[in-house]
Give the backbone structure.
Amino acid sequence: MNHQTIYDFEVNTQYGTTLNLSELKGQVILIVNTASKCLFTKQYTELEQLYKKYHNSGLSILAFPCNQFGNQEPGNAEQIKEFCSFNYDITFPLMEKIEVNGINTIPLYDFLKKRARGILGSTKIKWNFTKFLVSRDGSTIVRYAPWTSPKQFEIGIQSLLNEPAI
């Protein structure tokens, strides 16, 4: 299938149900590949703070656990959920564990990596907690590096939230 916009994709939640991203039209979406045993795992705190602060204004966060970087997400869905709930009181949705590079990359990540390239035009995800911020109409996708904390681009989230919903 030829995907033209982010809204053409479906992803699986940690519960095995399908989320059609067209259900998020009109929202600002922050997509993150996560891991429980990473130096950047503490970013869950800021992600949750942003979610609580802006969810009612139209921010959605989708966290995709990934074990491709240093085997830092070894758990199954239940273990990941328990870790995130117990340590960070996460209320935004956790998706199913995925791969973001290689032949098993989910189509959504192929799309994101091509639309918002990394340093020197790279389409690879370099590490856990690479973040993609998507505008309300899906036309703008910005990539943030793993070391860029979510609070560092809060002003960008606010700016996108202030755009008219589609």
